[in-house]
Amino acid sequence: MMRGSPSETRGDPLVGFALCPLNRISNTGVSVAQMPRRIRFALRLLAIICVFGFALFTTIAAFGRFHWAAELLTHFRVQATAAGILIAVVCGMLRMRVGTIVACVLVAVHAYPLLPYLLPMGPTLAPGNPQVRLLQINVHTANRDHQAVLRAITDTAPDIVGLVEVSERWLTALAPLHGRYPYRIEHPRGDNFGIALFSRFPIENLQLRPLQPDGSILMITGDFSLGSVPVTIAVAHPVPPVSGRYWAHRNSQLDQLSKILRQFDDREIILLGDLNTTPWSPTYHRFEQSADLKNGARGLGLFLTWPSSLPLLMIPIDHCLVSSGLRVTSFEVGSPLGSDHLPVLVAVAPQ
Fold it and tell me: Greatest CA separation found in the chain?
């Protein structure tokens, strides 16, 4: 994101921004007008195809609430914004005014949902507020780099650790942490839906709750106090929406998660987990409203966590959400730990 540099181009500032590369090329003695006619035609045709493709992508994503494949496109707002800016620049270089304007409008459509995460969140909290530090890690069941996860937990020294995709092997490897985190609940599995919570201080009423009617997917809840504020901590990992069937399961699990969290209306809520959705998905938006929670990354930045092996395609699906009486004061994404997810470290304090 560019800040503070006013445009020196007359007219539409977005068009002026897009034309800046053309000005630089012209200054070197090369301009689009001087290119061979066939090359100009090919470039314009390519730009038209890109604008059309970008418009089609945006249109399909608008139907994300109705179909799982359309919803998948909504997760890539960051990439779509970057690609749209590039398309607008190319159209500007080729002096394609309509293409430039269309691309800029589509960029605005994708960039608008990102703004709450990029704009400052307001006044800082008064010093001395009690806070709790939480680390959430999707360890990835097949990952065998146990030492990297152990080091990350030891080095960051959080008060609470939420873990998903834990197996018996993973819990055995993390046993050296038991002395530091004596309060635990563990539900290992051989697939990708094991779950655990470790705490440095007592957490009452630690229990597993079903997100599926058949009990095949479980979440964790527990209670503690943050200063004088009663808090319920939750850890969840719904299934990934990789097909229409799994999309329906993920949506119903988020609905059940919302229903469970609403039972704690006399307490503040902290939710950690790989929710297998991004903040700009219509499903996520419905869940956030239904559970009456807000994303802890708002006002702090865009924190992309998956897939860690494909940086250009990374999206934020590992979350910390809090209720209105709490505020996330810091949000960090850690280094790779051998998993396909990056860890998330947050600090939470009363408002």
Answer: 74
Neighbours of 331 (CB within 10 A): 21
Query: Residue 22 to residues 9, 81, 83, 180, 263: CA-CA distances in angstroms?
Result: 12, 21, 18, 60, 59
Angle at CA of residue 312, ends 276 and 316, nearest 5°: 25
Stated as kind and residue range, the H or E segment containing 328 is: strand 326-333
Q: How far apart, in Å, are the Cα atoms of 258 and each of 27, 289, 319?
A: 58, 9, 15
Residue 6 pLDDT? 37
DSSP state letters, 97-110: HHHHHHHHHHHHHH
Q: Other CB atoms closer than 10 Å to residue 217's CB: what's the count?
A: 22
CA distance linking residue 311 with residue 279, whole number of Å: 18
Q: Tell me: the pLDDT tens digits for 208-267?
A: 999 999 999 999 999 999 999 999 999 999 999 999 999 999 999 999 999 999 999 999
Answer for the pair 70, 59: CB distance below 8 angstroms, yes or no: no
The stretches of 136-264 forming alpha helices (DSSP H) are: 146-156, 168-173, 244-262
Domains contained in the chain, CATH given: 13-116 (no CATH), 122-350 (3.60.10.10)
Q: Decide the pairing of beta strands 229-236 and 268-274.
A: parallel
Strand 326-333 relative to strand 344-350, pairing:
antiparallel
**What is the per-residue pLDDT across 319-332, written as a single tens digit (0 to 9) for each?**
999 999 999 999 99
Cα angle for residues 120, 291, 279 (degrees, 5° grid): 45
Tell me the CB-side half-sphere exposure of residue 292, using CA atoms within 13 A: 15
The amino acid at 228: S
Backbone angles phi, psi at 38, to 5 degrees: -65, -40
Q: What is the DSSP-derived secondary structure letter of residue 32? A: G
pLDDT band, residue 18 (cuts 50/70/90): very low
Q: Which residues pair with 231 in a beta bridge?
A: 224, 268
196/220 Cα distance (integer angstroms) = 8
| Cβ count near 27 (within 10 Å) | 9
Tell me the one-letter amino acid at 321: L
Report whether pLDDT(76) > 70: yes
Closest CA to 131 of 292, 331, 334: 331
